[in-house]
Structure formats: C-alpha cells, structure tokens
Specification:
Elements (H helix, E strand, L loop, with lengths): L1 E5 L6 H9 L6 E4 L10 H10 L4 E3 L7 H7 L6 E3 L3 E5 L2 E6 L17 H9 L6 E4 L19 H10 L3 E4 L8 E5 L2 E5 L5 E4 L1
Parallel strand pairs: 1-2, 2-3, 3-4, 6-7, 7-8, 8-10
Antiparallel strand pairs: 1-11, 5-6, 9-10
C-alpha cells in the first residue's frame, strides 16, 4: 500500500497543492492533525484535501476539535475521521488519536487531552498496523527547538505494548521530518509535506 502522509497544514493551501502533486499513485492519504489555525480556517483545507480524491484518514490536532473536523468532512464519504477509533482498509488496521497529549500551555483555543484520557482511548484498540496520532510518543520525534522532550507517555506505552508497524504524528514543529524506531515501530513526525510510507 502506497501512503502519502502529512501533518500541521495550518491553513496552508499551497502545501495541499504540493501534496496533491505527489499523490497520483497513492492508495491512501493520512493527515495527522492541525489543519486549522487556532480553530479557524478548517473547511477550505478539508475541501482541498477531499478534492485530491483519494481515500483519506484524518485525526484532529490541537488547532481543531474532533467534532469540528467531523463536521468539516461530513460531505465526503472517502474521508475517515478517527479519534479513539479504528478503520480497516485493504486488510490493514489504522488507529487514530487526535489532539495534544499531554496538555499544552497555549490557552483555551488548544484542544488538549490528558495522559489518562489518551490511555483510555488507546486501550479501546488492542491492535493496529498504523497508529495515527497528532502528538508524538515520549522520547521519539518530540523535541522542541530548545531540545525539550514534549511527547506523550501514554502513546509511548501503547506503542511499546502493541508494536504497530508505524506511528505517524506531527505537533512538534521542530521535529518535523524526523523518524525514530521504538522497537519494531517506525515513528515519523511528518510536517506539512508529502511523506511517502509503504505498508
């Protein structure tokens, strides 16, 4: 399966056009959150992603809520919105968890979830070939510009236990396009560019 994955578009429609130009042979698109910018500008981005015309899996970031993302995508049958849920495509299981984990200092606009909440959502899915999260796991592709590790302990714990083939994430801009292996799991912090993933 040929996958094109990305995150953190933040209303940049030019980034979507670049992704479209590299998606001709893709079987699936995956977007790991932050399509909007501080809860604004979501719909045009989702429309542009939908117009690429490929089966697509999306999770919300902290710049939009799950409900906002689901509403923006409601008119498109080929968009799958995941949060504490999974979908099977061509025999492969994709699990999604959106939002910032742990909580950020960004204020009321940011859609944050506690480690306890995240663990409960993750535990509802005991297996996945691909885990799609907005936040990276603790210790993997999660360092900010000051070198501080900001990832999620609950996501890291789930990966250690279940070992999906991939964890595709974003959120920490300073770690875009970084990858790390957590046991048998390849963790990839995507950023707003087309990243090729083979499954």
């Amino acid at each position: 399966m040929h996958i094109i994955a990305f995150s953190d578009i933040h209303t940049d429609l030019h980034a979507i056009e670049k992704i479209r130009s590299q998606s001709e042979h893709a079987d699936l698109l995956i977007g790991a959150g932050d399509f909007a910018n501080m809860r604004r500008g979501l719909q045009p981005v989702i429309d542009a992603i939908a117009e690429i015309g490929k089966p697509t899996i999306l999770v919300h970031g902290n710049a939009e809520s799950h409900d906002e993302l689901a509403q923006a995508a409601a008119a498109y049958d080929h968009l799958h919105i995941l949060h504490g849920t999974s979908v099977t495509i061509d025999g492969k299981v994709f699990m999604g968890l959106g939002g910032a984990v742990p909580e950020t200092p960004f204020g009321d606009w940011s859609v944050d979830h506690s480690e306890k909440q995240a663990a409960a959502w993750l535990d509802a899915c005991p297996h996945a070939d691909v885990l799609i999260t907005h936040s990276p796991p603790k210790g993997h592709c999660d360092k900010d510009s000051a070198g501080k590790s900001l990832g999620s302990k609950s996501i890291a714990k789930w990966i250690k236990k279940h070992q999906p083939r991939y964890c595709l994430c974003g959120h920490i801009h300073a770690s875009w396009q970084n990858w790390s292996d957590a046991g048998q799991t390849r963790v990839m912090n995507l950023g707003p560019m087309a990243t090729k993933v083979e499954l």
